[in-house]
Amino acid sequence: MSFPFKIVLPAVMAIALAGPLHAKQLSAPDALQLLSSKSLSCDADGSPVKLKFGKANAKKGRIAFKGKFQGRSISSGYKTNKQGMLVNASTGKARSVSVDGKGRITIKGKGVPDTVCK
């Protein structure tokens, strides 16, 4: 009796490949590395956002960015706090960065709209 590898193997591969479609939250150092020197076109609550990140300073756990949102210029940054979390450099409010299987980067934070970038 032979095992039906032709049927089982594609099914197993489909299940394995489906996993990366879910967004994975990054650690602060990984988020800084991912965003370093990137220019992103994003969407925040249906409004276009352009973000341009500077080069991350991994030693200090910081990254600056500039952008445009609803016709306004924004300039801010993220840093790693003492607990190892990514926070807004000015307000100290927590931020999370995740990437899904399609390469979309999502930035979330309390009091700000979720920003999904390509």
What does this structure look like?
The chain has 118 residues and is of the alpha+beta class. Helices cover 19% and strands 43% of the residues. It has two helices and nine strands. Strands 1-7-8-9-2-3-4-5-6 form a nine-stranded antiparallel sheet, covered by helices on one side. It is globular and about 35 Å long. It starts with a helix and ends with a strand. Mean pLDDT is 85; it is low at 1-20.
- Which sequence of strands runs across the widest sheet? 1-7-8-9-2-3-4-5-6
Derived structural class: alpha+beta
State the helical fraction: 10-25%
Strand content: 35-45%
What is the rounded Rg?
18 Å
- End-to-end Cα distance, whole Å, is 49 Å
Largest sheet: 9 strands, antiparallel
Figure out the total of helices.
2
The strand count comes to 9
What is the structure about, briefly put?
The protein has 118 residues and is α+β, with helices and mostly antiparallel strands. 19% of the residues lie in helices and 43% in strands.
Question: Helices, strands, pairings?
Answer:
Blueprint: H1 5-18, E1 24-25, H2 28-35, E2 39-44, E3 47-53, E4 62-69, E5 72-80, E6 86-88, E7 95-99, E8 105-109, E9 112-117
Antiparallel strand pairs: 1-7, 2-3, 2-9, 3-4, 4-5, 5-6, 7-8, 8-9
Entry keywords:
118 residues, alpha+beta, disordered N terminus, 9 strands, 9-stranded antiparallel sheet
